[in-house]
C-alpha cells in the first residue's frame, strides 16, 4: 500500500492519516466544552484528505529534498469539501436544515483552513460551487487512497450525524438570539452574523489544531500542556494572596476603606458569572481587590483561566508586577505584550514561553 505523506522533516514522514487524526483530536478538544466536539473532529479528520494523491506525494517529497517547488501549487483543500457536500450529505439530508448547515459549516472550515473565501462574493460567485467543480482536484484518486487505511466511510457518516446533532442546538440558539424585541420571527441579517461567527469559530479550532500538529511534528516536541485541576490551583493561589493581604496595616482610614472594598469584591465572587464593575478612586487598591475577586470567582465557578487586559503598556507592566507578587506559582502567569521580550531560543528549539503565546492555553 502506498504511503501518502502529509509532512516530511529530516527523512521522517508523517502520513496523511496520522496528521488528520491528530488534527481531529486537537480540534475536538478545543470545541468539546461548548458542545461541538464531533464537529471539530470531523473537520480535522477530512481537512487534508486531498493530500492522498501521487501528485501531492511527489510535491512534498520534492520540497523535502530541497527542490524549488511553488508552495500551494498542488490543491489539497477542495477534496474534503467536495466529499462532504456531495457524498456525506445525502439527498434525504438536504431536506434537513440542520444537516445542510452542518455540512456547509464544516466544509467552509476545511476549504478555508489555508485562506478564507466568500461562500457567495459580491459578484454572486459561489465559493462552494467553485470547489465542487474545480478541475484541479484528483477527486477519485483521493477518495480511493484516503479510505484504503484506518478511516472508513461509515465512520465519517456516523460522525456527521453526531455533528449535526451538535449544530442543531446552536441553530436554535441563533434563532432565539436573532429575534428582535417586538418581533416573532428571526432577523435574517442578525442570523447571518451569528452563522458567520459560528463558522469562524469552527474554522479557528481547525486552523489551530492543524498548525499545532504540524509544528509538533516538524519541531519534534509537544506543546506545553495546559494546567489541570484548576479549582485546586485557584484555591491555593487565593489562600496565598489572602495570606499576604492579611499582613496589611488596617489602622489608617484609607487602609480601612481599602479593606472594605476588598471584602466587597470577595463577597461578589460568589455571584453567578456575568459582568461586574468596580468603580473606585485611584489608590483604592483596585489591582489587588480585583485579583482577589478573580481568584475566588474562578475557583467558585471552575473557570479555566484569568485574563487581565489594559489599554496602556505602563498600566500592564505596573499591574503585572503587582499580580506576580500575589501569585505563588510564577509558571501560571503568561505576560504577553510588546514590552515583554521573550527569552532567546535554545538552538533551534522554541522555548516554552514562545510556545505558550501560540494559543494562550
What does this structure look like?
With 361 residues, the protein is mostly helical. 56% of the residues lie in helices and 2% in strands. The chain has helices spanning 16-32, 37-46, 54-64, 78-88, 97-111, 127-133, 139-146, 153-177, 188-219, 230-245, 253-268, 286-300, 313-325, 352-356; strands at 5-9, 12-15. Strands 1-2 form a two-stranded antiparallel ribbon. Strand 1 (5-9) and strand 2 form a beta hairpin. Helix 1 (16-32) runs antiparallel to helix 2 and helix 2 (37-46) crosses helix 9. The protein is globular. It starts with a strand and ends in a 5-residue tail after the last helix. The mean pLDDT is 90.
Kindly summarize this structure in a few lines.
The protein has helices at 16-32, 37-46, 54-64, 78-88, 97-111, 127-133, 139-146, 153-177, 188-219, 230-245, 253-268, 286-300, 313-325, 352-356, and strands spanning 5-9, 12-15.
Helix/strand layout:
Blueprint: E1 5-9, E2 12-15, H1 16-32, H2 37-46, H3 54-64, H4 78-88, H5 97-111, H6 127-133, H7 139-146, H8 153-177, H9 188-219, H10 230-245, H11 253-268, H12 286-300, H13 313-325, H14 352-356
Antiparallel strand pairs: 1-2
